[in-house]
Specification:
The protein has 14 helices and 23 strands. It is an alpha+beta fold. The protein is globular, with a radius of gyration of 21 Å. It binds adenosine monophosphate and glycine. The site of glycine has 7 residues, from loops.
């Protein structure tokens, strides 16, 4: 099969890496890809937002299957355009992508289908949001921009003043542009966070192995939130019983709701959950694979990813047997540019990549990299995701850090505690 992967990050490198293991793969393209993806796919200079350009390319190159990595093209309607043109594409349509594109929409779906989530109110005017907050007695409370805000649109407000300031910055100050013209104010939930991912074919779904993200920039969850500084799989805190509960109380009603209301959810569904005293509750939905969750989960997938996606894109996941997994654990440590998630410098040469890549049970995924004059240089905040595999999480972690220590670039930084909580939790 001729396959196109849309995206340029570590997640897309992990997807390309898994696809490239398939005997059914004839030719792999990535748009726009990165310096690591280039070693296994032909990179095409098209932006993920150039929907027409991507569809033209897929037609011209007779692409059999397109796999979409990031949320932006999904929310913009990439898959709708592809399907109109008879192109096979794995990713939700624009209507189903509202699950990530609009937090208010997801809250409505949860209400209609009795999915456990934080109690919330949606506001279209700053005055109404302010009036509500003036009366609210329980703090902290959570203020969320409705639309896509690159993971930055959530404020946990300790008191009324902070909540009002968040509303003003989003709704009056335009901190997130149109994404903040509507806000959701919701109950603050206490508990442990977990992510559960599923692969959906429009009708049914297969739950993937669990992973635990590390969102804060620095060790022991200090510092600003990032896109994710590392992951381990399995997450260590989700029992088989809890997973079944999440499947039946959260994933199933959402997948069914989308089948009835949005012509089906076809793609990766990522549910961010809080394990509260009252059971698991939905925090957010992403309509794509997690980054860096993909860099820890996909190296453990033993089933042929291309084969399973080829079934799922036609709504034939039921004909595919259960997904098979490597029983080993995986640990992915992200190397970031100094200053990330704030201001960063790019163009720094990266040293030691070959030494790290040569290690057994190590995969170096590129996220923000580029090739300049034959050298690999930094090109983004998150630069690399280094995954180690091992019989236990502790061994996978040792492997990943041994590889990380071989890699150097100016002002590189990484967390040194990735996986420690999962190890404490029992595996
Ligand atoms: P979201 O983008 O909705 O996942 O929010 C980003 C992060 O904010 C989550 O990963 C949680 O750590 C936190 N968060 C979001 N909603 C809540 C909530 N209702 N209660 C507590 N923490 C929350
Ligand atoms: N790692 C979290 C995300 O992909 O949104």
């Amino acid at each position: 099969m001729r396959v196109l992967v849309v995206g340029a990050g570590g997640r897309e490198h992990a997807i390309c890496h898994a696809l490239s293991r398939s005997p059914r793969l004839e030719k792999l393209f990535a748009a726009p890809g990165n310096a690591g993806i280039r070693s296994i796919a032909e990179c095409v200079d098209l932006s993920v937002e150039d929907l027409t350009g991507l569809a033209d390319f897929a037609e011209r190159e007779r692409i059999d299957l397109t796999v979409v990595g990031p949320e932006v093209p999904l929310v913009l309607g990439l898959t709708d355009l592809f399907r109109e043109r008879g192109l096979r594409v794995f990713g939700p349509n624009k209507s189903a992508a509202r699950l990530e594109g609009s937090k208010a929409f997801t809250k409505e779906v949860c209400r209609r289908h009795h999915v456990p989530t934080a109690a919330s109110r949606t506001f279209d005017s700053a005055a109404a949001a302010r009036a509500y907050l003036e009366e609210l007695v329980i703090f902290p409370t959570v203020v969320k921009a409705d639309g896509l805000a690159a993971g930055k649109g959530v404020v946990i407000a300790a008191d009324r003043e902070e909540a009002l300031a968040a509303v003003d910055s989003m709704m009056v100050g335009g901190a997130f542009g149109a994404a903040g013209s509507r806000v959701v104010v919701e109950e603050f939930l206490e508990g442990t966070e977990v992510s559960v991912l599923a692969l959906c074919d429009g009708k049914t779904f297969a739950v993937l192995e669990t992973a635990r993200d590390h969102k804060a920039a620095y060790d022991y969850d200090k510092g600003p939130n990032t896109g994710g500084m590392g992951t381990v799989s399995p997450s260590g805190n989700v029992s088989a019983e809890l997973l079944r509960q999440v499947e039946s109380s959260i994933l199933l009603p959402i997948v069914h709701a989308m089948a009835r209301e949005a012509k089906g959810f076809r793609g990766f569904l990522f549910a961010g959950l809080m394990l509260t005293a009252g059971g698991p509750k939905l925090l957010e939905i992403n309509v794509r694979f997690g980054d860096p969750e993909a860099q820890a989960i996909l190296p453990r997938l033993k089933s042929d990813l291309l084969d399973v996606l080829d079934h799922a894109v036609d709504g034939r996941l039921d004909e595919f047997g259960p997904l098979e997994w490597d029983p080993r654990a995986a640990c992915c440590v992200v190397l970031a540019s100094g200053g990330y998630p704030g201001k960063i410098e790019t163009g720094q040469p990266i040293h030691g990549l070959k030494d790290a890549e040569a290690m057994d049970d190590v995969i170096v995924f590129h996220a923000g990299t580029a090739e300049r004059e034959g050298r690999i240089v930094t090109a983004g905040g998150r630069v690399l995701g280094v995954t180690g595999l091992g019989a236990t999480t502790a061994l996978a972690r040792e492997r990943a850090y041994a590889a990380v220590e071989k890699i150097r670039f100016q002002d590189a930084y990484y967390r040194t505690d990735i996986g420690l909580k999962a190890i404490e939790a029992g595996r």
